[in-house]
Write a structure and sequence with these properties.
Layout: H1 3-14, H2 20-31, H3 40-54, H4 64-92, E1 101-103, E2 106-108, H5 111-171
Antiparallel strand pairs: 1-2
Helix pairs in contact: 1-2, 2-3
Length: about 170
């Protein structure tokens, strides 16, 4: 068989695009033993496949009760895993509109209830902001008074400078 044809078949084989007859052709080619040096690495691979195909699994030993118990244990484990998966998916599933609502760290399933709770929280926040603003009024008045005192200080300094200027002009005459 042509080496180029085998290389093309190998490429298709590793891409998963070969048919059963093409795979049989590859197995026959590598089983004959006279393989070119460039294709030798693939020879070991197909020899491994042939060896594995020849291996048979031993029949289970033990009484029928032991086998039934193993099957029942396996079935019970699979069922428990399925239930756990369903519970997990249901817990994580979003609501009908695609959103999951949480209020105070707790999941809320009703959109209207979530909106009402959020609105109540926003109103409480607005009320506390108003209270904070009202409690700041004395500080704002104090700040305004401080500004007024600073302005009075500036006026006093200007008056002193003006006083000094008048005194200087009156003594020079």
């Amino acid at each position: 068989m042509d080496e180029q044809k085998i290389k093309a078949l190998l490429e298709r084989y590793f891409d998963g695009a070969t048919s059963l007859p093409e795979e049989q052709e590859l197995r026959r080619f590598f089983a004959k033993g006279n393989v070119p040096a460039t294709l030798k690495p693939y020879s070991a691979l197909f020899a491994f496949y042939a060896h594995e195909r020849a291996v048979t699994c031993p029949a289970p030993t033990g009484s029928g009760n032991a086998l039934r118990l193993r099957r029942w244990t396996l079935a019970a484990t699979a069922a428990a895993a399925a239930v756990a998966l369903m519970v997990t998916l249901k817990t994580l599933a979003p609501t009908q509109d695609g959103y999951t609502y949480y209020v105070d760290g707790k999941r809320v399933y009703d959109k209207e209830a979530a909106m009402q709770l959020a609105d109540a929280k926003l109103q409480m926040l607005a009320a506390s902001m108003q209270h904070a603003k009202a409690s700041m009024e004395p500080f704002e008045k104090l700040h305004d008074a401080s500004r007024s005192l600073e302005q009075l200080d500036k006026i006093r300094q200007m008056l002193r400078q003006a006083d000094n200027m008048i005194f200087v002009t009156s003594t020079t005459k």
